[in-house]
Design goal:
Number of strands: 0
Number of helices: 14
Radius of gyration: 19 Å
Distance between the termini: 17 Å
Shape: globular
């Protein structure tokens, strides 16, 4: 139970970090998307390299594991720029709903398909509660005119689900820092090429005037990435996805408190349902353990 609780707390921390993405994205949204993405990821990769070198976390990748790194990186390439685009045109809450809706669905699909997870009553109840909460919060909050940013948010959810699920194939053999370093290097290189091909404006003021904001983004990204990968070591993918739904609540709160985005009673009720669904697996586990002790 302690390991599951540890994993749950780590994923909750990652949810807070990822929930702040929209807030931080709005601060630099005037810069071209692939340009700001590769620059941020290069900085993140540099910090991770220093951490990994000091901690001696890097080791040679075994031949049989190369394919899983390729799979993780293939998903991860689509896990940053699409959501940055979505946050630019959608409310933080709407973008988060679309992102996490697709993340949850595909995490379940991948968990059942590749890890042979069983559909338990707890998982089913948690998924129903979280889905109901999301519907209450975001029903009718966007229109057809925002189709492209909506599709980008959905794509980001699919990519992130593949990233966190397939990282379980390698996270028990390689450090979280090494995996994250490789992931961010791949994102930085691919987005650098795309930025040049699309002839984006390489505006130096992103560094000279907004370097502090980039560092905040880097800190949130590193903490979020490290904690989610570490957390998924101790929980099943579908359970992790349910707990991670708190990201939506954090994003909604940032939208309300910072950008004064509209909310109502149904949004509050939806948030409560998501919190309950996130806590449900641990609540059931605690109850089961106590029942076993009482019998003994």
């Amino acid at each position: 139970m302690f390991k599951q609780l540890t994993g749950s707390v780590l994923i909750l921390i990652s949810a807070l970090m990822f929930g702040s993405y929209g807030l931080l994205s709005r601060e630099i949204e005037s810069y071209d998307i692939f340009y700001q993405t590769y620059l941020r990821c290069f900085i993140i990769a540099l910090i991770l390299f220093v951490l990994g070198y000091v901690r001696k976390d890097f080791k040679r990748i075994e031949k049989q594991d190369i394919r899983w790194f390729v799979v993780v990186c293939a998903f991860t390439v689509f896990s940053v720029a699409p959501i940055v685009y979505a946050f630019k045109y959608l409310t933080l809450g709407t973008a988060s709903f679309l992102f996490y809706g697709s993340l949850t669905i595909f995490t379940y699909i991948l968990g059942f398909g590749f890890f042979k997870e069983k559909i338990t009553n707890v998982k089913a109840a948690g998924l129903v509660l979280s889905t109901a909460g999301l519907i209450l919060i975001f029903s009718g909050s966007f229109g057809a005119a925002l189709l492209l940013p909506s599709l980008m948010a959905l794509l980001n959810g699919v990519a992130s689900s593949g990233e966190v699920v397939f990282s379980k194939k390698i996270s028990n053999k390689y450090s979280t820092i090494q995996i994250s370093f490789i992931v961010f290097v791949v994102i930085a290189l691919t987005h650098f090429v795309l930025s040049l091909l699309l002839q984006e404006n390489q505006d130096a003021t992103l560094i000279t005037q907004n370097f502090g904001k980039i560092l905040l983004f880097a800190a949130a990204s590193i903490i979020g990435m490290l904690t989610v990968i570490e957390g998924y070591k101790y929980v099943e993918p579908s359970i992790g996805a349910i707990i991670g739904l708190m990201e939506v609540v954090f994003s909604l709160l940032f939208g309300i408190l910072v950008f004064h985005e509209a909310t109502n009673g149904s949004a509050v009720l939806g948030g409560v349902l998501i919190i309950v669904s996130a806590a449900l697996p641990n609540m059931v586990e605690v109850y089961r353990k106590r029942s076993e002790k009482s019998i003994i």
